Amino acid sequence: MILPLEEHQLKNGITCQIRSPIEEDAQKFMEYRKTTNSETYFLLRYPEEVNFSIEQAEKFLKEYSEDEKALLIFVFLNGEIAGSISLRGVSNMMKLKHRANFGVMVRKKYWNLGIGNLLITRMLQIAKDTGYEQVELGVFENNENAIRIYKKIGFEEWGRVRRAFKLKNGNYYDEIIMGIML
Q1: Is 72 exposed, middle or buried (0-12, 13-18, 19+ CB in 10 A)?
Q2: Residue 90 to residue 63: CA distance in whole angstroms
Q3: What are phi and psi for residue 149, nearest 5 degrees?
Q4: Model confidence at 74, in pLDDT bands (50, 70, 90)?
Q5: At what angle do helices 115-130 and 144-153 cross, to 10 degrees?
Q6: HSE (CB half, 13 Å, CA atoms) of 8?
Q7: How far apart are CA 17 and CA 9, in angstroms?
Q8: What percent of the chain has pLDDT over 70?
Q9: What does the alpha-carbon distance between residue 129 and residue 126 come to, in Å, rounded to a whole number?
Q10: Which residues sit opposite 104 in a β-bridge?
Q11: Which residues have C-beta within 8 Å of that of residue 130, sequence separation ≥ 6?
Q12: How far is it, in rounded angstroms, from Cα 128 to Cα 130?
């Protein structure tokens, strides 16, 4: 699905633009993804795992825009992608199609401006309008800032996957499964 350009004011009074990406955003998207994955281990990939071509990035962005039950939104600040959120249905099977999950990323230099909160709040409204009944996510057990934001918005802990994440240094972390009913 496509979200047309919207402007929103952040906590610091700066106006940002949010919209669905277009194929021409592919290069910026690749740079953004590599950067965000190098800034924290709370994302699922290491930077070296972000190794797709421009053509693959363009195809990825196009697939989101053509899927009426999926959403990808970018936040733009200072001409660059500052954050993003994606939403997809868990499955098209009849017993599961009421559920969606999401992932959110914000470039470190833009942390604490309210971008994550803006993206999640906007995504939840779109998810509800699309017909989803619940939205779920997985989060590192020690990602306290994210967990605090999710709880503030209304997400609850629904369960845990023990030792779900294993870092290069050998440390394991549980994944907390959180959800919200729409």
Answers
A1: buried
A2: 16
A3: -65, -45
A4: very high
A5: 50
A6: 20
A7: 9
A8: 100
A9: 5
A10: 85
A11: 1, 68, 69, 71
A12: 5
User: ∠ CA 155-157-160 to the nearest 5 degrees?
Assistant: 140
If you search the block for the tokens 């990602």, which residue do you land on?
A: 143
Q: Which residues, other chains included, contact 48 with Cβ-Cβ below 8 Å and sequence gap of 6+?
A: none
The C-alpha angle with vertex 174 and arms to 181 and 132, in degrees rounded to 5, equals 20
For residue range 44-72, what is the model confidence (pLDDT) as tens digits?
Answer: 999 999 888 899 999 999 999 999 999 99
Structure tokens at 159: 């369960």
Q: What secondary structure does DSSP assign to the chain, as a single string?
A: --PPPEEEE-TTS-EEEEE---GGGHHHHHHHHHHHHHH-TTSSS-GGG----HHHHHHHHHHHHH-TT-EEEEEEETTEEEEEEEEEES-SSTTTTTEEEEEEEE-GGGTTSSHHHHHHHHHHHHHHHHT-SEEEEEEETT-HHHHHHHHHHT-EEEEEEEEEEE-TTS-EEEEEEEEEE-
